[in-house]
Amino acid sequence: MGDVRIPLDQRSELVNSIASVLGRKNGPNASLYWHGLAKRLMRLSIAFGVSREAAEAELQRLLHTVLREIDRRELAPHT
Predict the structure, then answer these.
(1) How far from the centroid of its chain's Cα atoms is residue 59's Cα?
(2) How many domains does the chain divide into?
(3) Residues with Cβ < 8 Å from 18, sequence gap 6 or more?
(4) Is residue 4 a part of any domain in this protein?
(5) Which of 1, 25, 70, 74 is deepest in the core (most CB within 10 A)?
(6) Is residue 18, in this structure, part of any structural domain at all?
(7) Cβ(19)–Cβ(75) under 8 Å?
(8) Ramachandran bin of 77, using left for φ above 0, alpha for ψ from -120 to 50, beta for the remaining angles
(9) Is residue 46 part of a domain?
(10) Does residue 64 lie in a domain region?
């Protein structure tokens, strides 16, 4: 049986919750939030057997997905 773990950037609930928080923060506060979260997710990934390199790549994909979600929300018509 292979790896059945769902990649972080494909977990819509996670992406949406991070985008909600980061969308309200900016500058140093946003950076502190992201770096703290990334550090925790990195530790968890490694504890589950993911290599450091693979975990770093996954976190990079997660960040790009979150930033796209923030952009999408900002461009969406406000009702």
Answers:
(1) 6
(2) 1
(3) 37, 62, 66
(4) no
(5) 70
(6) yes
(7) no
(8) beta
(9) yes
(10) yes
DSSP string, 9-78: GG-HHHHHHHHHHHHH--HHHHHHHHHHHHHHHHHHHHHTT--HHHHHHHHHHHHHHHHHHHHHHHHSPP
Enumerate residues 6+ apart whose C-beta is below 8 A from 48.
5
Q: What would the pLDDT profile of 54-79 be if each residue is shown by its tens digit?
A: 999 999 999 999 999 999 998 877 65
Domain that holds residue 32: 9-75
Mean pLDDT of the chain: 92
| Residue 11's pLDDT band (cuts 50, 70, 90) | very high
Average pLDDT estimate for 15-34: 95
Look up residue 48 and give its two tokens: 């589950």
Task: Answer for the pair 21, 36: CB distance below 8 angstroms, yes or no.
Answer: no
The DSSP letter of residue 79 is -
